[in-house]
């Protein structure tokens, strides 16, 4: 399973159609062939949806870089 955000193969399954990427430290849920919802896990372990940003990969990368 490749991470849809960074393309890393270093992912682990955490639930039904849900995966965690150890490279970019995001959790994502697959939705159909190409769709996905990505989540950023903040310091308190809260999942923050990146759904809006995920529609623009560049925005996600900028967000990751802070
Ligand atoms: Zn990733």
Description of the molecule:
- The protein contains 2 helices and 5 strands.
- With 66 residues, the protein is of the alpha+beta class.
- The chain has one domain.
- The protein has a 5-stranded antiparallel sheet with strand order 1-2-3-4-5.
- The longest helix is centred in the C-terminal third of the chain and has 9 residues.
- It is globular.
- The protein starts with 10 loop residues before the first strand and ends with a helix.
- The model has no long low-confidence stretch (mean pLDDT 81).
- The structure holds zinc ion.
- Zinc ion binds next to loops.
- This is Zn-ribbon containing protein.
Could you outline the blueprint of secondary structure elements for this entry?
Layout: E1 11-15, E2 18-21, E3 26-31, E4 35-41, E5 47-49, H1 51-54, H2 57-65
Antiparallel strand pairs: 1-2, 2-3, 3-4, 4-5
Bound molecules: zinc ion (ZN).
| CA-based gyration radius | 11 Å
Contiguous helical run count: 2
The ligands bound in this entry are:
zinc ion
Structure class: alpha+beta
- Give the domain tally: 1
Beta percentage is: 35-45%
Can you write the helix and strand succession as a string?
EEEEEHH
Number of strands: 5
Shape field: globular
The helix content is 10-25%
- Main β-sheet: number of strands, strand sense, barrel status? 5 strands, antiparallel
Uncertain residue segments: none
pLDDT averaged over residues: 81
Instruction: Give, in spatial order, the strands making up the sheet with the most strands.
Output: 1-2-3-4-5
Distance between the termini: 26 Å
């Amino acid at each position: 399973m490749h991470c849809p955000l960074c393309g890393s193969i270093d992912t682990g399954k955490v639930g039904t159609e849900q995966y965690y990427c150890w490279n970019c430290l995001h959790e994502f849920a697959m939705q159909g062939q190409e769709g996905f919802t990505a989540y950023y896990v903040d310091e308190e372990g809260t999942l923050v949806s990146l759904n809006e940003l995920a529609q623009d990969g560049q925005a996600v990368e900028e967000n990751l870089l802070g």
